[in-house]
Design goal:
Elements: H1 2-13, H2 19-22, H3 41-49, H4 54-67, H5 70-79, H6 83-93, H7 110-122, H8 127-130, H9 135-139, H10 151-162, H11 164-173, H12 182-215
């Protein structure tokens, strides 16, 4: 295990972005710094995905956090069931695309959704301006911040995951409906139409099967 930690340390400290570009003065991720290119990223991800005991995984997470290798750090946080920590750092990274079902980073409970929504609410809007100075954002040529962490973007994701009506109830409970624009209302209407269409398709396919089951 100590050899693996040594390999990980070497991988994150060579051919890597400057730590000042990935970690701020308080030790938090700089916005969009997960988009930087790391020379040994594939090796790093391989090392942290290999089976290891809990203590070793925690040490790996500490190394990734220290150098600002956020893809690895988020993966380890989720693996170690440090989900609120993962959500907090995703908000610092300011990229709603990091909330992906395939990476197990979608909130799983209403409490997790509430936590994430309140994080988004308290997230400084000024970071969206300063993040354009981040080297990774410049290198990717992106000036579109529609995927930033905002209450509305998280609310849209919530509506897609649990349905628009349940999402609206939760947002009302959190007192966040005033932060939503007409865009949210339009998307919810589209989702409702899609839900009705899905229920209709289910009924159309279900009825013949039921009939065949009865006559057989």
């Amino acid at each position: 295990e100590s050899l693996r930690l040594e390999w990980l340390y070497l991988a994150v400290s060579h051919d890597a972005p400057l730590r000042a570009n990935t970690v701020d003065a308080e030790g938090n991720p700089r916005p969009r710094s997960h988009l930087f290119t790391w020379g040994y990223s594939q090796l790093i991800l391989l090392l942290i995905k290999l089976p290891a005991d809990f203590v070793t995984k925690e040490k790996m997470a500490d190394i990734c956090k220290s150098y600002g290798f956020w893809p690895g750090y988020l993966s380890l946080c989720l693996e170690l069931d440090r989900r609120t920590e993962a959500f907090t750092n995703i908000v610092h990274l300011d990229d709603v695309n990091l909330l992906e079902e395939e990476h197990d980073s979608i909130p799983e409970t209403m409490e997790e959704w509430k936590y994430l929504l309140h994080l988004a609410q308290s997230h400084s809007s000024g970071v969206h301006v300063h993040s354009t100075q981040n080297g990774s954002a410049v290198s990717n040529g992106s000036s579109n911040w529609s995927n930033c962490i905002t209450v509305e973007n998280v609310a849209l994701l919530l509506a897609k995951v649990i349905g628009p009506d349940r999402a609206l109830l939760l947002l009302q409970e959190c007192g966040l409906t005033v932060e939503l624009s007409e865009r949210f209302t339009r998307v919810c209407e589209i989702l409702r139409i899609a839900e009705k269409r899905q229920r209709w398709d289910h009924m159309v396919h279900f009825k013949p099967e039921s009939y065949l089951g009865i006559i057989s």
